[in-house]
Specification:
About 25% of the residues lie in helices and about 20% in strands. By secondary structure, the protein is α/β, with parallel strands linked by helices. The protein folds into 2 domains: about 5-135 and about 315-385, FAD/NAD(P)-binding domain (3-Layer(bba) Sandwich), CATH 3.50.50.60; about 140-310, 3-Layer(bba) Sandwich (FAD/NAD(P)-binding domain). It is globular. It starts with a strand and ends in an 11-residue tail after the last helix.
Length: about 400
């Protein structure tokens, strides 16, 4: 049985913030598009996040194009409020994604993009990949994991700490998820410990009542080393010397870390205070697992009931997107996001650039740019006849 076939000017893969934003921008430019989503709802990654999650960037700088967050929302909306906002955004722009469409292959064929889901083949002149930076959980392996008798789960499967009350829980990784999960565990009566292998930059979500995002925007034109040097005295005053608590500071500052390596620093929303109070313990990296717990790199052997891997994600776009060399980099992330690619005709990525000014703000800017690029590309005579 041959699969069904559909044609459009543009196919957008993903109905998260990036996919919805691109669809809205194309709509403003009157360019037809089809939005494909493998789950049965928009914003699936946000819906699946742990319940305590809030935006780490303020709502004033996090809205998608042509539709603001409600005035009634707090400065930093909750996970559920972001989910509600994304649903309202889709309704406002009358975006109706085709759900249940898992992409298994996308390639160039006869001058167009051919996108295969499990049951349909879509043809489009342009393809926008907006499947999300956090598409696939990264699960590192250590010796002895198979013998460990406790529970191991990735942060993508963590919802809240109610079921872990009274347990000793090891959270591996001090990124934004790991830090906030440690707070959630403490609030639910668990005994959290953080395994922190590498040096970490710690910044406050706000500095004297000003969102760090706003500071990042104001300093965007500065060389990263200059911005870090300018911010360092205030950051030291606010956080103090954390080495006595087991947290080492890297040689590079947070702005340099973002721009050079695409890694977001740890944005503190209360974890550091719990560490200073002794409510959250800090340990170095894991050497190996035992039946009852882990042995850390300093030789300390401790028992844990549960281990939460807050070890991040990877885009893994290469698992279904067939492109030539020079388009995708490490972990399946594109080498460029929000712009036309020299090595891949009519292919665009949205939401894959880590920015000091915030991921949602970056997505909004990229979506506007992609909308303009595609509208200009499709504005030649005869293109409208190819769109269905």
């Amino acid at each position: 049985m041959n699969p069904a076939s559909r044609t459009s000017a543009v196919v957008v893969v993903g109905a998260g913030p990036a996919g919805l934003a691109v669809a809205a921008c194309l709509q403003k430019k009157k360019v037809p598009c089809i939005v494909l989503e493998q789950h049965d709802h928009v914003g699936s990654s946000w819906l699946g996040h742990y319940h305590r999650l809030h935006l780490h960037t303020d709502k004033a700088h996090s809205a998608l194009p042509f539709y603001d967050f409600p005035k009634s929302y707090p400065r930093y909306p909750s996970r559920q409020q972001v989910v509600d906002y994304l649903n309202a955004y889709a309704r406002h722009h009358q975006i109706q994604p085709l759900h249940g469409q898992k992409i298994v292959r996308a390639c160039r064929t006869e001058g167009d993009w051919e996108i295969h889901s499990q049951d349909t083949v879509y043809r489009a002149r342009s393809l926008v990949v907006a499947a999300g930076y956090n598409r696939e959980p990264q699960r590192p392996a250590w010796p002895g994991m198979d013998a460990y008798q406790g529970q191991i789960l990735h942060s993508s499967a963590y919802t809240h700490g109610a079921s872990l009350k009274g347990q000793r829980v090891l959270v591996v990784g001090l990124g934004n998820s790991g830090g906030e999960i440690a707070i959630d565990l403490h609030e639910h009566g668990a005994q959290p410990t953080l395994a922190v292998r590498s040096p970490v930059n710690v910044i406050r979500r706000e500095v004297f009542g000003i969102p760090f995002l706003t500071i990042g925007i104001l300093q965007k034109a500065l060389p990263p080393q200059w911005a870090d040097a300018l911010n360092a005295p205030v950051m030291r005053m606010l956080t103090g010397d954390l080495s006595q608590y087991g947290l080492r500071q890297p040689d590079e500052g947070p702005i340099t870390q973002i721009r050079k390596h695409g890694r977001v620093p740890f944005i503190d929303v209360g974890t550091i205070q719990l560490i200073k109070q002794g409510q959250v313990q800090v340990r170095p990296g894991i050497e190996r697992f035992t039946e009852q717990g882990v042995v850390f790199s300093d030789g300390r052997d401790e028992a844990f009931d549960t281990v939460v891997l807050a070890t991040g994600y990877r885009p893994n776009v290469q698992s279904w997107l067939e492109v030539g060399d020079g388009v995708l980099g490490e972990g399946g992330a594109p080498v460029a996001s929000g712009q036309a690619l020299e090595r891949a005709q009519d292919l665009y990525f949205c939401g894959y650039h880590v920015s000091a000014t915030g991921m949602l703000r970056e997505i909004a800017q990229e979506a506007l740019q992609i909308g303009q690029l595609i509208a200009r590309s499709h504005g030649q005579p005869g293109n409208a006849a190819r769109a269905a």
